[in-house]
Amino acid sequence: MKTIEAIIYVVPTPKGRARVAVIGGHARAYTPAKTRKAENDISYAIRQQCMGQGTFDAGVPLTLYAKFFIDKPKSAPKKMTAPVHRPDLDNYVKLLLDALNKFVIPDDSQVVNMHIKKCFGSPPRIELIITEGLE
Q1: pTM of the full predicted structure?
Q2: Which of 44, 73, 75, 87 fits a disulfide with 14 by CB distance 3.0 to 4.6 angstroms?
């Protein structure tokens, strides 16, 4: 059973909604620059760390374990132990899966099981483990 592990030292960024602009009388959808940059940063870091670990084959079910660590705001009360505010956890996952898509995993639809956590931690980072099969 193949496993890929990585710690990506980037500030977790949620996937932004597609924007629409009218150019020359035609509506064009585009991805916000902040989302594109974050996705490229994550993809680059994953390529650097996972190059020797290989990739997964198409059609194999995968399990994703991911922890998103963000800095605790100074204004947050001491008793606050988890980031229960926006951005939503699923938006972090969307960006991560898009960054993994076509490099580590052939298609993000192969991820059939996820264990995801958003927590406070310094430095900001994403810790992930991807394994074959259902666990």
Answers
A1: 0.86
A2: 87
